[in-house]
Amino acid sequence: MKYVLQLLAAGLLLAPAAHAQTKLSIPPLSPTTRIHQNFSTSYIDLTYSRPSLRGRVAFGNLVPNGTVWRTGANTITKVRFGEEVKIGGQTVPAGAYALLTIPDAKEWTFILNRDTAQWGSYEYKQALDVLRLKARPTKLAAPVETMSLTVENLKPNAADLVLSWDRTQVALPLTADPDRIVMGQIEQAMKGEKKPYVQAAQYYYNTGKDLTPAIGWFDEFIKSNADAGYYGYYWKAKLLQKQGKNAEAIVAARKSLELVQADKNEISKAEYIHLNEEVLAAAGVKK
Fold first, then answer.
1. Which of 1, 35, 61, 159 is deepest in the core (most CB within 10 A)?
2. Whole-prediction pTM value?
């Protein structure tokens, strides 16, 4: 009994009662954001917490210059690349990384670090860095209240990871090599039973490659897809036209027009009549 009285006096037996309190749902001061952006042949994932100014000055004050920063609030900011990328000419393998920065007035340092489990940057170890890259910040005309990390200037093989907060914006340029990956996929897939004739041919068309094999792939597609023959002939016409073979393109477009008449879907039928007429007009055929 004496031991219980001692615990009561120390307040230790009050802890369970405190834990039993109703949990409130309160808006977080720095809400967590998750971004999944398709990029190249895979993706870029970002997970971070977004601090706001709330009347404060961000850099050189709230976030000291010249020190390693978690690049957000709460736990470490994480970035995951679905495939190998290059940053500033340095190769970064696919995988997840902690994204840290060292802000400064004239030059920032971006850091990718292997330790994605660290809280903030308190246990940051430079020995686990995968990459360090300098970047120059730009001054914004108007302040950004809430910090944002976004993927901007998207191209098939390039993008910028952009940080904006207060009156500062700084970008990390990324590049990828989707052509190497896609060409490897095509080579492997063409050895299998389910050959991606259409996708492969359209990829050749859109990336300016030699269209001779692509035209052959559409011939194979037409043989095995009688119901979609008008689609195959339309694309064959487009490829031939891009090669400068207008006479052959006209023949293919007219064949597509002939076959599409059997399509019972009036919407797709009208669409491919229109598309083939565009090919014929570009080849100099008058109505």
1. 159
2. 0.84
